[in-house]
Design the sequence.
């Protein structure tokens, strides 16, 4: 057992790239679910929109990196939120759930389709769109940084990611203590009451869907930059539920909950992942029980189990208050 | 004869009919032994005049790796066998050179050529290229009619699985995202008894299917008793229950992947059948059976809901739970039966789906999205709505390949789901009610 590598990976989960990508997406989902009560089961599609917004602008149409960033973080998520929200936000909460999970699958199938290969790269996805980003990097790609945890390019992604995350948390904090934030919370608690006070609940829900989607898109875009590829299978529907676990674990409806949840989630996932991998390699676990391929599947089972246990026994998570986040019917 | 005995007799008769179908089998089971070299292999065969196996000789198969570099080439021998040795595990693309196929033996699904397969280090990976009368080659069929019939078959299977989803929603308010995994469960249990074997004993597909339906019904009942009933007793909100169901969906799906592996598999029985020619369309005997059998089951379910006490109670609870409870209906008991029946129907749907398409660990999730489309179109909570909606969705999916590339056919159905919600959110048969 190489405990040094286990510790490294756990730390990387706690503060590294995955934590940043999913932390951002969880902040977005927090605006959806934690503050407005929207059941968005398709945060993966917003993440994919951010990734493909950038990748397609740069790799397919040869536009500048900055155009790609604007399209990925603003244009695509807004269009997507309007398409998903328009038919469902007037209906019972589970309709949004069904439509968003379906949308995530639709988007993935379209991006995979060979008939659109010249624009989307089909199942291979798109690459070579993030060079401009790394040109700004002050770090030497050959060196290791931060207690040797990250190589130069990763360090640059992590540093930018932390700044974006901090800005995201700050914006979220400003939003939820603004009058706007009080209205969406009112919509979450009792939509009829909010409407009877003259608030246009539909419009507020749509705005929350758009804002939260933008955070998700930012997370997805950073992920595409970090891995230097936008691939449809990086945004499978299960990805959404990693974000959900991060959110509920940390505490939905709290400003720092999603960030804390993402950090803990990825520390735990990385820890078990490396631990199991090493146990399998060293034959502490016989191959007949678990093979190297199967280790990767364990993390998805853990996500499923975490969702079940959290929703059933601790819906308010670590930071949330029971009164505010009892997962009530809306 | 009581209704339940009649039902069993009907099922038995249907299965007896199936047994008379043409016998054909294919050795499609991947065998993996760790100490041999890594290979991809397969057997090319097609059905002869009387449905017997005919091996296809001298067909060239080329294997390339992910970078597009050719790693091996094989030509089928007189028994139709081909083997390509690989340098190691990984993802490979297997291309069947269709110009080397004999005259009149087309690939059944040309869109699956080349086939991308993942091979584990040291594994022997069986790859299937189904051959035989593709629908297009059958001369005088009309494509739209053929697609309509194929769609009807798909729709009936979706409907069978979706009725449980809709009834569970109607009686408990839960949108059960794990329902797709109940479909996969049924298909895999049948595979377990049919191919893998339990204590070394394998059964025919018919027996395996019957066992699978029974096991699925029990599993549905247990799922309710162990998870949903306690949650209801604790007064858990519907949203908490919804998230729990998603958790189960992911957990079960990856348990299936863990146990079953990532490959698609097929039931060996009834794989290669000569199609009946109905003029405007052709149908393999198994597909004709699926259409008749599922229609029969759905009619029985409809009659059961309409005529029997239990069925009436189910509809009453779905209609107005409080009213039903105050008129003396034991709501918990009704819910228990809904889960048992829903589990059995989902399991049966899974077996039928595996019979016409392929078995995979995530088949249920794909069906789930189609069920959602069907149930929403018909009206959430209405059993008849689920039926009609699902059939329309099935037909729509197949017919949409007239204009859409076939890999996007499910996309069309899901986009329609969004459009339906925009125009008529309560669905075709649902009650118009507006929340918010």
Sequence:
């Amino acid at each position: 057992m190489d405990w040094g590598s286990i510790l490294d990976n756990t730390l990387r989960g706690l503060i590294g790239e995955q934590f940043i990508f999913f932390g951002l997406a969880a902040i977005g989902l927090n605006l959806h679910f934690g503050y407005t009560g929207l059941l968005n089961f398709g945060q993966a599609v917003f993440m994919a929109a951010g990734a493909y917004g950038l990748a397609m602008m740069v790799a397919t149409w040869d536009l500048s990196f900055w155009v790609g960033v604007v399209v990925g973080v603003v244009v695509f998520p807004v269009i997507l939120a309007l398409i998903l929200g328009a038919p469902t936000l007037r209906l019972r909460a589970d309709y949004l759930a069904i439509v968003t999970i379906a949308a995530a699958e639709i988007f993935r199938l379209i991006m995979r389709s060979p008939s659109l290969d010249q624009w989307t790269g089909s199942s291979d996805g798109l690459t070579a769109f993030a060079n401009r980003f790394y040109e700004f990097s002050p770090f030497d790609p050959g060196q290791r940084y931060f207690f040797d945890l990250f190589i130069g390019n990763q360090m640059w992604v992590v540093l930018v990611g932390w700044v974006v995350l901090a800005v995201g948390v700050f914006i979220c904090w400003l939003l939820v203590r603004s009058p706007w934030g009080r209205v969406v919370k009112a919509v979450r608690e009792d939509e009829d009451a909010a409407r009877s006070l003259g608030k246009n609940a539909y419009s507020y829900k749509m705005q929350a869907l758009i804002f939260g989607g933008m955070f998700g898109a930012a997370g997805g875009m950073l992920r595409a930059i970090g891995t230097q590829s936008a691939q449809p299978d990086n945004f499978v529907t299960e990805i959404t539920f990693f974000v959900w676990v991060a959110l509920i674990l940390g505490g939905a409806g709290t400003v720092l909950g999603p960030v804390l949840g993402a950090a803990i989630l990825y520390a735990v996932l990385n820890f078990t992942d490396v631990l199991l991998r090493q146990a399998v390699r060293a034959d502490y676990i016989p191959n007949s029980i678990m093979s190297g391929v199967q280790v990767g599947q364990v993390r998805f089972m853990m996500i499923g189990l975490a969702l079940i246990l959290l929703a059933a026994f601790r819906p308010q998570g670590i930071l949330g208050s029971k009164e505010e986040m009892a997962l009530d019917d809306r | 004869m009581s209704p339940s005995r009649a039902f069993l007799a009907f099922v038995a008769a249907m299965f007896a009919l199936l047994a008379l179908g043409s016998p054909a089998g294919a050795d499609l089971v991947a065998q993996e032994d760790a100490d041999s070299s890594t290979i991809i292999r397969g057997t090319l065969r097609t059905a002869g005049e009387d449905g017997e196996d005919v091996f296809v000789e001298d067909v060239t198969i080329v294997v390339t790796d992910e970078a597009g570099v050719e790693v091996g080439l094989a030509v089928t021998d007189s028994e139709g066998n081909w083997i390509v040795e690989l340098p190691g595990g990984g993802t490979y693309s297997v291309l069947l050179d269709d110009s080397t196929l004999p005259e009149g033996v087309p690939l059944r699904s040309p869109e699956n050529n080349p086939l991308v397969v993942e091979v584990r280090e040291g594994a022997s990976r069986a790859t299937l290229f189904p051959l035989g009368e593709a629908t297009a080659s059958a001369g005088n069929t009309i494509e739209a009619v053929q697609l309509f019939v194929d769609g009807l078959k798909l729709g009936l299977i979706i409907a069978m699985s979706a009725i449980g989803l809709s009834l569970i929603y109607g009686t408990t308010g839960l949108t059960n995202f794990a329902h797709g995994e109940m479909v996969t469960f049924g298909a895999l249990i049948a595979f377990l008894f049919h191919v893998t074997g339990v204590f070394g004993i394998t059964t025919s597909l018919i027996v395996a299917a019957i066992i699978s339906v029974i096991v699925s019904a029990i599993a549905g009942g247990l799922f309710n008793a162990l998870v949903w009933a306690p949650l209801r007793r604790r007064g858990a909100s519907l949203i908490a229950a919804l998230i729990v169901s998603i958790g189960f969906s992911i957990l079960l799906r990856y348990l299936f992947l863990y146990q079953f592996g990532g490959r698609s598999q097929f039931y060996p029985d009834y794989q290669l059948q000569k199609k009946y020619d109905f003029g405007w369309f052709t149908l393999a005997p198994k597909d004709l059976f699926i259409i008749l059998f599922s229609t029969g089951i759905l009619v029985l379910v409809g009659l059961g809901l309409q005529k029997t006490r239990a069925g009436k109670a189910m509809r009453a609870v779905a209609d107005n739970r409080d009213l039903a409870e105050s008129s003396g209906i034991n709501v918990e008991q009704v819910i228990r039966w809904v889960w048992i029946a829903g589990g059995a129907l989902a399991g049966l749907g899974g077996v039928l789906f595996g019979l016409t398409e392929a078995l995979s660990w995530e088949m249920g999730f794909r069906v789930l999205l189609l069920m959602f489309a069907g149930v929403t179109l018909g009206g959430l909570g209405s059993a008849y709505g689920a039926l009609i909606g699902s059939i329309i969705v099935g037909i729509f999916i197949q017919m949409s390949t007239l204009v859409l590339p076939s890999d996007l056919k499910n996309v069309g159905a899901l986009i329609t789901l969004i459009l339906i919600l925009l125009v008529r959110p309560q669905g075709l048969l649902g009650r118009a009610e507006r929340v918010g």
Remarks:
- Chain B touches chain A through 47 residues (CB under 8 Å).
- The CA atoms of residues 59 and 100 of chain B lie 5 Å apart.
